[in-house]
Structures are given as structure tokens and as C-alpha cells.
Write a structure and sequence with these properties.
The protein is of the alpha/beta class. Helix content is 33%, strand content 28%. It has eight helices and twelve strands. It has a six-stranded mixed sheet with strand order 6-9-10-3-11-12, sandwiched between helices. Strands 2-1-4-5 form a four-stranded antiparallel sheet, covered by helices on one side. The protein is globular.
């Protein structure tokens, strides 16, 4: 039996139906501390639905979610964030007319004496986070003035700033250059070293095999299995994702 202290997040037998569709049918996912866990499957396999159930965007119909051994049922993404679960979404949902600093602290401005928002504190904290992550972005820049890849880095820094225990990356490299992908991987390795659990959703096989410790594969809303990344090849992953051997 594995040491239960190593398990950070346990999602068990999660079910979710929408009218006419069983989106998740008894899906399980176990993420250990200080590891990168890839979640793979074709479009429509249920990966995003599972993450939205974790994040409180959807309410699961059945199953249990345990974080650090305690059962949780987040009712909103705000509640998930406050409890250490953060998500870097593929669709960037940012306030483009506001500054980088504003975007980082939107909805949770640091207060001084319980009332005032302190610009100085916000700037200082933003700089600390960016320095730690080696993110070269000017905190006073307006979001709309930056390329998508830099906005993505701000989104990643924001997730890290919540001191999250679990961070979900949903197709994080789709808008990043090669150099930026390497930077992202350095950040992920830093988070691993801190004991963070990373859930990594991507279609890029070479990335998955390079960055992941474990891989869970889903198909048609069902859990297919979990394997150590080092045991897998690209062909094995694809055939398990599509449910048949590859001929062409």
C-alpha cells in the first residue's frame, strides 16, 4: 500500500450528467505531493468536466473529493482558491483594460487596517512573485498591451500567488514559444520541489512524457487507468486514449 501521506488530492468515483449525456462515469484521480500528474484523453473525454467538478464550477452528482485527507465540496472557484486549489485556464479570462498588478489581485486586494487597498503592498507582492518565478513582466503594464504568451505567464503567477497546494494547468503551452515552455517547466519543477501537486492537461505527447510523473487516461467520460510516465510511450498513450491499436 502506498503511504497515504503522499496523497494530496483524491477524487473517487466522480459522476456528472448533463441532459442526455453522462459526462463522467465513476472517474477517479489521485495526485501525490510534489508530482506532476498528466490527465489525458481525446476532446470530449471528460477532462475539463472533471476539473470543473474539482474547482466548484460544476457540482458533481456522485463521488468524493478529498484534499489533504479531508473531504471537500467547493461551491465556487473562489472557495477552491481559498482552500489551495488553483487553475490556469486555457481561455484567458483577464481584465484587459487593467494593469498586471490589478489582474493578479482582483477580488482579493490586500487590505491595510481592514479597509484600504494598499497599492504599495500590491506592487511589492507582485514583484516578489515575479522575481521568484523569473517572470519578466512590468507589473504596471496594461494587460491588453502584452502578447498572449506574457498574459499566460501572469495567469500562472496568479495561480502560484494563492500558495496553492494543487494547480491545474489546462493546455498551458498552446500559446507559448519554445523558450517560454522551458520557463514554464522550470516553474513547474520549482512548484514540485515545494510539494505542490500539479495536474497537467495537454495534447502534446512529448511534453507529457517529459514533465509528468504519472499519467491518467480518460475515454468517453470513463477512467481507463493510471500509469507511471516512464513506463509509457506515445503509441501506448494514444491507443489507450482511442481504445484501439493504431493501424495508420
Amino acid at each position: 500500500m502506498e503511504n497515504n501521506n503522499s496523497v494530496l488530492l483524491e477524487m473517487k468515483n466522480i459522476c456528472k450528467s448533463f441532459p442526455g449525456v453522462k459526462a463522467l462515469d465513476n472517474v477517479s484521480l489521485t495526485v501525490k505531493r510534489g508530482t506532476v500528474h498528466a490527465l489525458m484523453g481525446e476532446n470530449g473525454a471528460g477532462k475539463s468536466t472533471l476539473m470543473k467538478c474539482l474547482f466548484g464550477i460544476y457540482h458533481k452528482d456522485a463521488g468524493t473529493i478529498k484534499l489533504d485527507g479531508k473531504e471537500v465540496n467547493f461551491r465556487s472557484s473562489k472557495e477552491a482558491l481559498e482552500n489551495g486549489v488553483a487553475m490556469v485556464h486555457q481561455e484567458l479570462n483577464q481584465a484587459l483594460t487593467r494593469t498586471v498588478t490589478d489582474n493578479l489581485w482582483l477580488g482579493r486586494y490586500p487590505k491595510v487596517g481592514g479597509i484600504m487597498v494598499s497599492e504599495a503592498v500590491m506592487r511589492k507582492r507582485t514583484k516578489e512573485i515575479f522575481d521568484e518565478l523569473e517572470v519578466k513582466v512590468n507589473p504596471s503594464t496594461t494587460m491588453s498591451a502584452m502578447p498572449v504568451s506574457q498574459r499566460q505567464m501572469v495567469e500562472i503567477a496568479k495561480a502560484v500567488s494563492y500558495d496553492a497546494k494543487v494547480i491545474v494547468f489546462d493546455e498551458p503551452t498552446s500559446s507559448l514559444t519554445e523558450v517560454e515552455v522551458e520557463h514554464l517547466f522550470r516553474i513547474i519543477n520549482m512548484l514540485k520541489a515545494k510539494g505542490c501537486g500539479i495536474i497537467y492537461i495537454s495534447h502534446k505527447m512529448e511534453e507529457i512524457l517529459r514533465i509528468s510523473d504519472e499519467v491518467t487516461i480518460m475515454r468517453d467520460g470513463q477512467y481507463i487507468g493510471t500509469w507511471e510516465a516512464k513506463e509509457l510511450t506515445t503509441d501506448m498513450i494514444i491507443s489507450r486514449m482511442v481504445g484501439r491499436e493504431l493501424t495508420n
